[in-house]
Amino acid sequence: MIQVEHVSKAFRRTPALDDVSLRFAPCERVALVGANGAGKTTLIRCLLGEYAHAGRVTLDGLSPRSQRAEVLQRVGFVPQLPPPLRMPVSELIQFAAGVCASDPERIGEVSARLGLDARSLRGQAFVKLSGGQKQKLLIAIALGRDSDFLILDEPAANLDPAARRSFFELLAERAASATMLISSHRLDEVAPLVQRVVELDRGRVALDDRVAESGGLADTLRCRLELASEEAAVVKALRAWGFDEDASGTVWTGEVAGPDRLRFFAMLSRYSGWIRGLRLETPRDGPPRS
Question: Cα(194)–Cα(213) distance, rounded to whole angstroms?
Answer without folding.
Answer: 7
